[in-house]
Amino acid sequence: MALATVSKKSGMVLIKGGVILTLNPADEIIEEGYLLLQEDKIEKVGGRREAPPDHAVDRIIDASDSLIMPGLVNTHTHAAMACFRGLADDLSLKTWLDDYIFPVESRFVNPEFVYKGTLLAGLEMIRSGTTTMCDGYFFEEAAAQAVMDVGLRAIVGKGVIDFPTPDTPDPALNIAHGKRFLEQCPSNSRITPALFCHSAYTCGPETLQKAKEVCRSSSIPFLIHLAETEDEIREIRNRYGVSVVRHLDRLGVLDEGTIAAHCVWVAANEFSLVAKKRVRIAHCPESNMKLASGVAPIPDFLQNGIPVGLGTDGCASNNNLDMLSEMDTAAKIHKLCRKDPTVMDAKTVVRMATRGGAEVVGLDKEIGSLEPGKKADIIILDLKQPHMTPIYNYYSHLVYSASGHDVVTVLIDGRVVMDNREILTVNEKDAVTAVGEIGKTIKRRTLG
Amino acid sequence: MALATVSKKSGMVLIKGGVILTLNPADEIIEEGYLLLQEDKIEKVGGRREAPPDHAVDRIIDASDSLIMPGLVNTHTHAAMACFRGLADDLSLKTWLDDYIFPVESRFVNPEFVYKGTLLAGLEMIRSGTTTMCDGYFFEEAAAQAVMDVGLRAIVGKGVIDFPTPDTPDPALNIAHGKRFLEQCPSNSRITPALFCHSAYTCGPETLQKAKEVCRSSSIPFLIHLAETEDEIREIRNRYGVSVVRHLDRLGVLDEGTIAAHCVWVAANEFSLVAKKRVRIAHCPESNMKLASGVAPIPDFLQNGIPVGLGTDGCASNNNLDMLSEMDTAAKIHKLCRKDPTVMDAKTVVRMATRGGAEVVGLDKEIGSLEPGKKADIIILDLKQPHMTPIYNYYSHLVYSASGHDVVTVLIDGRVVMDNREILTVNEKDAVTAVGEIGKTIKRRTLG
User: Fold this and answer.
1) B257 within a domain of the structure (yes/no)
2) Within this chain, do residues A65 and A84 fall inside the same structural domain, yes or no?
3) Of B319, B421, B433, B444, which to mutate for an interface test with A (greatest number of A Cβ within 10 Å)?
4) Were B376 and a residue from A136, A334, B76, B414 both cysteine, which residue would form a disulfide, CB within 3.0 to 4.6 Å?
5) Which of B230-234's residues contact partners 24+ apart within 8 Å by CB, and which partners?
6) Nearest in space to A352 (alpha carbons), one of A414, A317, A309
7) Is A447 at the interface with chain B, CB within 8 A?
8) What is the pLDDT of residue B7?
9) Tens digits of per-residue pLDDT, A154-212?
10) Are A39 and A62 part of one and the same domain?
11) Chain B residues closer than 8 Å to A83 by CB
12) Binary contact (B389, A319; C-beta < 8 A)
């Protein structure tokens, strides 16, 4: 199933010449710096003058006129849904899900679909500077294979729902299938398996509790859509008499291993509960806008010390995976809603997309900043372009001026996966053609 | 002052192989089409099989795997402010204007600044698919020169304010300077001069009326910021006892020659007045979000038959000139605010950015769609990329998936100004360096 792959790790790599945004706890910026990598890790970070001599390393990456920063962490997506990009827009969440997404999923989603869709999404992510994603979908062993082939780092969450799904036609088996996935998921240092309970309205109390139990005993993340729409709040209140946050708390599924996506409708009187339980939040502003779900109270979450990362959501509700555009939206939407242009300043948003995201997915010891000992997940952006000129503030440029296309070179786990806009891991043309064909089939069989 | 220029018009150009989004009144899409250009105009549009033979034309542009559409129309910007990109963010409009923008403008803005800044902005616009801009700033004769050199089409509006400005230190002379500008503005088929009264709070009634009179007698557009913030509404009501819309109406400055930017705070009971007066509106959602100004009631304007175009505003309040990103925001923000994901569908937004914008700037007979007889202002986007795959709906891709970087080739007035991402009109590197230097000077003298 794998498209052609190329893979070679260098021993020592020196990146030099550019501006380094370390995103370390002191938010250090090194105007002309260097990074020394040893295999998959960062060995040293410093000013160019202290860099080792060129002959001491195996490879030199010249980052002149460039910005060097940690790879972006996309804390919530459904990568394989790239195959549905643009299939159904400008619709209500209910119509979109019930009349388009669920029906096409039941007809077309299989391991090959998930592999090809995830591979395409992985390419789009790498091209736009994402080095780690937190994914939730079906046939996640195929997603994991695509992640390994394309060179990404990922949390791969196997979908769990209380109705028939493409990979679990009998929902009574969903926990068993979840356990089986954890056993069968390819073992790789770049992959963390997880379970993804779709939501409290598609998973009953028992499913939620059992899935969380499995996650706890395996020390893996538990992913869920939480408080995405007002309808969800209403429905859960009708069924269980409490808000969805309190419902999940009662079931005991809220803790630091739970990554909750959206959290648009978390009430003010629940902030301290969410903070106390150390729940991690994936903020997806573009999806929430496009589906008219609302705006999550992110400034409040941050003020309460709740870890927040940024996510694009799936391509079917965004419709791209460009984290830099998402950062722009995240910075602007809260200013508008709070009637306060000083909230969610550029630096806060860049942090959220890097070390904030790393904390949300539980990998903050390994990724999220450029510091010695951390994994070499690094992106390099071209600053010498009209829309990046002049330069007063790097954070501002990243959030308000840049887009994913400004990323030219990407390293993940010390491996150069994109070099000066050329993908080195898989055959990109074949991957694009493969999903193009899936799209043609779906279009022919559904839209006419 | 001009950087190196190259300029050559071909006689007959054939564009073939791509999907043509005509944006004609029937919104025709030609799946595999051709466009025949003669000098500055479109001669024919049709299906590929009816295309003239290759040997009959002077040049062929192969647009396979591409989308061909009319150039985008940016209905509101301050191009030279590209020099201030990222200088001051995450601030209130008042602090931003009074403590940053106005002071740096008074110190640094001169004809050279405007030329270089506009040239850079022009490059950014061309790179991201904008072929026509409606500009308002100081020393607009220098802006016009940059527009001519870079190859853009533009409305260049000379700024008029009742306080000392870089080009009119004595505000008593602002109307006289406005008239002089109209006489001295370089004559070029791609340039329409205009006057730009900054706002009703920076221009008194007499200035507004006199400026409008000049515009009327010369049949040129009158540009103004209108109802941008709640503060503006309050201030005008305090001074004149009515809303700013009614204030301008009383002064007689509202008609089809008036291009009003923002219009966030136009009240529901003013929609019919604005419609009746045939005022044209430039919608700048990203700037309005970033400055926390609010959201303009665009769906209502459209329902009332008011012409609406899209604008980026200046780089200091956005901070880029990417109309494709602006389209994405325009589609999403109204869904959120109306709690209705069906409003502002993708096709509506694409129309707004093309023929809608052309109507707003008064050039709808010449540009805004790909139809025989219209000017050859054409952009070509690369569809063969991960984030543009698969394809179900072209409008959706443009609005929700694409960004300005997907534009590969741009023709304006029949001239290829960017060919496969290479700028052909001016030396881009020099233009970037020039504004980089301006930025360094400003940074040294103000921030450091």
Assistant:
1) yes
2) no
3) B319
4) B414
5) B230/B265, B230/B293, B230/B294, B231/B93, B231/B94, B232/B199, B232/B200, B232/B201, B232/B265, B233/B265
6) A309
7) yes
8) 40
9) 999 999 999 999 999 999 999 999 999 999 998 899 999 999 999 999 999 999 999 99
10) yes
11) 390
12) no
pLDDT at B207 over 70: yes
Pick among B64, B97, B123, B332 to test the A interface (most A CBs inside 10 A): B332
For B418-437, what is the mean pLDDT? 98
For residue B448, what pLDDT band results from cuts at 50, 70 and 90? low
Task: For residues A63 and A79, state if they share a domain.
Answer: no
B305 occurs within a structural domain: yes
Task: Report the pLDDT averaged over residues B409-418.
Answer: 98
- Whether residues A338 and A404 share a domain: the answer is no
B333 touches chain A (CB under 8 A): yes
| Nearest CA-CA distance, residue B6 and chain A, Å | 19
- Out of A292, A315, A346, whose CB is closest to B89? A346
Which pLDDT does position B3 carry in this prediction?
A: 41
Q: Is the pLDDT of residue B112 over 80?
A: yes
Average model confidence (pLDDT) across chain B: 95
Q: What are residue B35's DSSP bridge partners? A: B15, B45
Q: How far is A435 from chain B (nearest CA, A)?
A: 6
Cis preceding-peptide flag for A288 (omega within 30 of 0): no
pLDDT for the residue numbered A7 = 41
- Given its phi and psi angles, is residue B313 left (phi above 0), alpha (psi -120 to 50 degrees) or beta? left
Q: Cβ separation of A396 and B89 shorter than 8 Å? A: yes
Does the residue A267 lie in any domain?
yes
Note the pLDDT of residue B187: 86
The one-letter code for the residue type at A186 is P
Q: What is the C-alpha separation between A42 and A48, in angstroms, rounded? A: 15
Count up the domains in chain B and report the number. 1
Cβ-Cβ contacts under 8 Å between A and B: the total is 227
pLDDT in tens, A45-103: 999 999 999 999 999 999 999 999 999 999 999 999 999 999 999 998 788 888 999 89
**Domain identity same for A82 and A196:** yes
Determine contact, residues B445/A400, Cβ cutoff 8 Å: no
Chain A: residue nearest B394 by CA?
A: A86
What CATH number does the domain containing B339 carry?
3.20.20.140
Residues A256 and A267 sit within 8 Å (Cβ to Cβ)? no
Q: CB–CB of A439 and B331 under 8 A?
A: no
**CA–CA min distance B222, chain A (Å):** 28
**pTM given for the model:** 0.96
Q: Which residue has the tokens 């007499």?
A: B206
- Show the domain range for B291: 72-360
- Touching B: A residues 116-135, CB under 8 Å: 120-121, 123-124, 127-128
